[in-house]
Write a structure and sequence with these properties.
Length: 384
């Protein structure tokens, strides 16, 4: 798959680490957690033990190595739902199962300061996936719109929540046409922020109303976006030096597929593609929600951006998406060419600003929500 893929050197499971008070018996603690999630039948497959950290003991939960090898060899979780024979679209409980199983084989430990935070993390991921499946936008690189009954535009702050509007309702109406009756234009990056914010806000309404009220108030004055959004709301695992396994995803992850072609990456909106992992080997499609992407489909689409560049009447570089769609269909009929393109694109990406023949489009990191529970949340809103 290319030289950058050979940088993957570590696929051992670390699973989940739960800090704070734990039950004396790790097996009982494991069972109690799984029962809260409706997944008690997984207990025999989980290695549960107390380990000593630098300052304290903590509960370690990870999938047994034999089970990992059976369900997701090489920590490739894209086929996990099919292997488990579960319906993550029709069943919220099955979606929770895929999330928990994938987390229990995490190559970097998912750290939680309490059992409650672990449970909330699963709830947030479920919220994000279910919202992402319903989300569809109008693609436009130069325009942005929101439902006017919930949002107002400010030149300095962007779209601000109207004081009388509910944050969760406003986010749903902006992203889900079955609720609003309309498609609104904004970038995939901003859309991914809305999905993450919605997933967090829905859980805060349930478990931390005081923080939800602060979040609601902030969006009526100074909404957070871009780099600050990442810093405030997200944990990130992996790095360029220590990349996550290329096919390891947990439903509810945000990831970036980078366009490794420098020329077409200059077209506004085509530097890459931000998506949410839905589970079942699928990534959401912000523009056609009923046609989520497989990883191969994403590879082919981004690859063919380079073959569909043109300049509009103003001289700006654009991508002819109809041509991209035709080229993808042609490639699907040419197995040898498809294998070639997958080999090119299925490498780890290069750093931002760097373009070489060795780079593909796979990101080295995954992003997911911070802790949200009263007393343990690390989601700290900046002062106005």
């Amino acid at each position: 798959m290319g030289s950058r893929l050979l940088r993957q050197v570590h696929v051992d499971c670390m699973g989940c680490h739960v800090h704070g008070p734990t039950l004396p018996d790790p097996r009982q603690a494991c069972l109690d957690i799984l029962e809260r999630l409706g997944l008690a039948d997984l207990q025999p497959m989980v290695v549960a033990q107390h380990l000593h950290g630098s300052h304290e003991k903590f509960l370690s939960l990870k999938l047994h190595p034999d089970q990992v090898q059976q369900w997701a060899p090489g920590l490739d979780t894209l086929g996990l739902a099919a292997t488990l024979q579960i319906d993550t679209v029709g069943s919220r409980q099955d979606l929770a199962r895929e999330i928990v199983v994938a987390m229990l084989m995490g190559p970097v430990a998912f750290e939680f300061p309490s059992v409650d935070e672990l449970v909330s993390a699963v709830h947030i991921r479920i919220n994000i996936v279910q919202a992402a499946r319903k989300t569809m936008l109008a693609f436009h690189t130069m325009q942005a719109e929101r439902p006017q009954d919930c949002w107002q535009y400010d030149e300095d702050r962007g779209f601000v929540l109207r004081p009388e509007a509910s944050l969760t309702t406003a986010l749903i109406k902006a992203t889900q046409p079955e609720v609003s009756g309309e498609l609104y234009s904004f970038s995939c990056y901003r859309a991914s922020e809305y999905l993450i914010l919605l997933g967090i806000a829905q859980e805060l309404e349930r478990c931390n109303p005081a923080l939800y009220a602060q979040l609601q108030s902030m969006w009526t004055t100074n909404p957070i976006k871009s780099g600050l959004f990442h810093d405030v709301f997200l944990h990130e695992q992996g790095s360029m030096d220590a990349p996550l396994p290329p096919h390891y995803f947990v439903p509810g992850d945000r990831t970036w597929f980078r366009n490794p072609d420098e020329a077409s990456a200059d077209a506004s909106g085509f530097e890459g593609s931000w998506v949410m992992y839905l589970g079942g080997g699928l990534f959401n499609n912000f523009w056609q929600r009923d046609k989520p992407y497989t990883m191969v489909a994403k590879y082919l689409e981004i690859y063919h951006w380079r073959n569909a560049v043109y300049r509009d009447d103003t001289g700006e570089e654009r991508i002819d998406e109809d041509r991209v769609a035709r080229l993808v269909q042609e490639t699907l009929k040419d197995p040898a060419e498809m294998v070639r393109i997958v080999a090119v694109m299925g490498r780890y990406r290069e750093p931002r600003g760097v373009y070489t023949d060795a780079g593909g489009c796979i990101d080295t990191t995954r992003e997911f929500a911070r802790w949200v529970r009263p007393g343990t949340t690390d989601l700290v809103l900046p002062l106005p």
